[in-house]
Amino acid sequence: MGRRRQIALSIAVLGIVALLAGIFLSSEMGGEWRVADDGILEYSRPSPEYRAISSEVEGDSNLSEVSFSSRGAEVAGLLRMPEAQQSGGVPGVVLLPGATITKEREQGVAKLLSGLGYASMALDQRNLGGIDVQGDLEMFLDGQEPTEYKMVHDALAAAEVLRMQPGIDPDRIVYLGESNGGRFAIIASALDKRSRGVIAISTCGYDVEREEIDLLRMNGPDTVRFLRSIDPDTYLDRIPPRRFVMIHSLNDTVIPLDSARRTYEKALEPKEMHIVECAIHGRCGEMDPYIEEELARMV
Predict the structure, then answer these.
(1) 2-298: which CATH topology?
(2) pLDDT string in tens for the chain (299-residue length)
(3) Rounded distance, CA 266 to CA 207, Å?
(4) CA–CA dist 96, 180 (Å, integer)
(5) Cα–Cα distance measured from residue 210 to residue 77, given in angstroms and rounded to the nearest whole number
(6) How far apart are CA 39 and CA 215, in angstroms?
(7) Taking a C-beta distance cutoff of 8 angstroms, is the pair 90, 117 a contact?
(8) Phi, psi at 57, each rounded to 5°
(9) Residue 245 pairs with which residues in a beta bridge?
(10) Where in the chain are the domains?
(11) I need a surface site. Which of 30, 272, 273, 291 has the fewest CB within 10 A?
(12) CA 81 to CA 109: how far, in whole Å?
C-alpha cells in the first residue's frame, strides 16, 4: 500500500534506535499514557471538564456548541440531541471527521443520526484530522506524548462528555469515523470497553505487521512499537465482543478497497463489511441504510 510504504520510507530516513521501555511515560498531565510492548496504547479513563457555549433548536434536534478539556487542550465539538427523547435515554455516537473536515461539515451525518433517534458529538480534531507520523515518532522516541495519541484521547473524552448528558444512555455509545477519523474511531472503540462498537467509513489500517521484519532491521523495536501503536490493525482483537463494521466504496478515490479488505480480514467476529458503488471518498447516501442497520444492531 502506498501510504504504508511512505511511512516506512519516512522512518528509514530517521535511522533512530531509542531506549524506551514499556512503562508509563511522563507528560505534562502526569504520566497517564502508556504503550505496551505489543504496541497497544493505554490511557486512564478521561475525566473531561466541559462547557456549553451556545444552543439552538434546528429542525428536529437541539444543537449545542461545546468545549471540553483533553490532554492540555480545549476541544471544540457540536452536540446534537434529537428532540424526541426515549425512556432510559437515547444512544450516542462520537463522530470523527476525516482530515480537513470540520465539525460543521460533519453535520450531514449528525442530522441523519438525529432523525434516527441518536445523539452525536462531532469534533474539530487536532490539526483538523491531519497527522505527522515522522514528527510524532520523534516525540515518542523523546518520551513525549505524540499528537496522534492525544487525538485518540480526544475521542475518548468526547464519549465521556456524551455520557454526562441528561437524556443520553451512557451504556449505549458508538464510535463512527471517516477516513483518518475512522482510524481514530477504531482505536478509541478498542480502548473504550463501555462502547458498543465502531463504524469505520472509507478507511483502513497501515498493515505495519506485513513490513515489521524490515522495519525492525532498519529502525529497531521502539520505532516498530510506535508504528504499531498508531495502526488500527493492532487493536482489532480488542474490539470483540463489540461489533466492528466497515463501509467502503467500490470506487473510493483515496483508499483502495483492497486496503480496507485487508484490515477487515484481520478483524474478529462480530464484524461486517458493506461495499457501495459511489465514486467518492467518505460517506455517501448509499451508505446511510447500512449506518442505520448497523447502529440498530449495536445499541
Answers:
(1) Rossmann fold (3.40.50)
(2) 444 444 444 444 343 333 233 333 433 333 589 999 999 999 998 999 999 999 999 988 999 999 999 999 999 999 999 987 777 899 999 999 999 999 999 999 999 999 999 999 999 999 999 999 999 999 999 999 999 999 999 999 999 999 999 999 999 999 999 999 999 999 999 999 999 999 999 999 999 998 888 888 888 999 999 999 999 999 999 999 999 999 999 999 999 999 999 999 999 999 999 999 999 999 999 999 999 999 999 99
(3) 10
(4) 8
(5) 36
(6) 14
(7) yes
(8) -90, 130
(9) 199, 272
(10) 2-298
(11) 30
(12) 13
Strands (E) located in the chain: 33-35, 41-43, 50-58, 61-70, 73-82, 90-96, 119-123, 168-178, 197-201, 243-249, 271-276
pTM of the shown model: 0.90
Sign of CA dihedral 127, 129, 130, 132: positive
Give the three cell numbers for residue 91.
Answer: 444512544
Rounded alpha-carbon distances, angstroms, from residue 220 to 21, 225, 276: 13, 9, 40
Cis peptide before 270 (omega within 30 of 0): yes
Of the candidates 250, 74, 67, 254, which has an alpha carbon nearest to the alpha carbon of residue 178? 254
Residues in the chain: 299
Q: What is the dihedral of CA 151, 252, 247, 40, to 10 degrees?
A: -40
In sequence order, which residues have a C-beta less than 8 Å from that of residue 135 and are 6 or more positions away?
147
Distances (CA, A) of 189 to 47, 52, 125, 234: 17, 25, 16, 13
Residues 215 and 229: their CA atoms lie apart, in Å, by: 14
Which residue from 65, 69, 70, 97 is spatially nearest to 81, judged by alpha carbons? 65
C-alpha cell read off for 267: 478483524
